[in-house]
Amino acid sequence: MNAPAALHKLRIRKADLADPAECRRIEAYVRGHEAGTPFHLPQWLQAVETGCGQRGHMLLAERAGGLRGLLPLTEMHSPLFGRALVSSGFAVAGGTLVSNPRNATALANAGWDLAERLSCPEVELRGGALPKAWQKREGVYAGFTKMLAADEESELKAVPRKQRAEIRKAFENDLTIDTGRAERDRAAHYAVYAESVRNLGTPVFPRALFDAMLDSFGEEADILTVRHKGAPVASVLSFYFGGTVMPYWGGGTRAARHLRANERMYFALMNHARQRGCTRFDFGRSKIGTGPYSYKKNWGFEPAPLVYAGRTASGAAPREMNPNSPKYRMQVLLWKRLPLGIATRVGPWIAKGLG
Q: Start and end of every BioF2-like acetyltransferase domain (predicted)?
């Protein structure tokens, strides 16, 4: 005898992220899904909430008691940039994660319903199975991923000749490598990262965000720092997930350029990740046509266009978050000239709303 039809109806509800058992169930689904990312995990939403005060929500799609999909959402609010629901906040990916593509639209529409209840005029889905009838947002970003070579020598040979020469120059300098998660690693990373983004003209995220990520992800996250005569000159916070290393928040001081410290950093991370059992290197996303986009291509990575989806309330304009926009040209130029101490104090207040 067939079960009642109601048992097979797709049901969407909000997850209780304060329930450890619920979070373990979600984590098992994400880790078992071929398209799962760290940005789909409860840990990511919780770290963003702890570090930046932006509330996390998780929508679950269930059928006959089984989990059939999910949508992580961060409720972004900023006095400068407005309100939005983003999947996932401060992430380069996220979006709907489903067992059947047909469930993506139902989850996304439930996300829109939640946005309306929260007075958020926009929802942005960063990848995943895209919902029907939503606006596609493409042609802005590309992702860069490739397999790691079998050993250090093969890795160096796999890098195009010009970039390989830069790595060899880095080996000639007095550079040392540290990896860890202790306070010394965290302080060095934040000092380097704060200077790096100030030099680019953008505000730095709160250090509390990085601490929360390291605490939430445990051994699946660490910091690699390059030092010159004991002083940190380049540093990156990376995640390790499903056999892939993801250098995520990284940068260098002004001295890093002539020392080739960034080249030393990323090559060291490739070897460090291999020793941890990783087989892929995910260089993250970059805006098409920018310096970082070209830099990653120089390493031998092929760009893969990223397609996002969005929905905006009638009469509302999508958030403009691109620092390369002419709208922010003057602000970027002024920010580059700020004393580092002031930029580091003021930046987190602005940046916590940029996710």
A: 163-297
Supply the mean pLDDT for the chain.
93
Q: What is the DSSP string of 84-136?
A: EEEETTT-S---BEESSTHHHHHHHHHHHHHHHHTT--EEEE-SBSPPTTSEE
Q: Are 61 and 84 in contact (CB under 8 A)?
A: no
The predicted pLDDT at position 279 comes to 98
For 64, 71, 115, 209, 221, the CA distances from 226, given in Å and listed in that order, are: 52, 37, 43, 22, 17
Q: Where are the domains of the chain?
A: 5-138+307-319, 142-306
User: How many angstroms separate the CA atoms of 17 and 21, rounded?
Assistant: 9
**How far is residue 89's CA from residue 297's CA, in Å, rounded to a whole number?**
26
Percent of the residues in the chain that have a pLDDT greater than 70, as a whole number: 95
Q: Which fold has domain 142-306?
A: Aminopeptidase (3.40.630)
β-pair partners for 177: 226
Query: Do 5-138+307-319 and 142-306 agree at the fold level?
Result: yes
The single residue listed with the structure tokens 């830099």 is 295
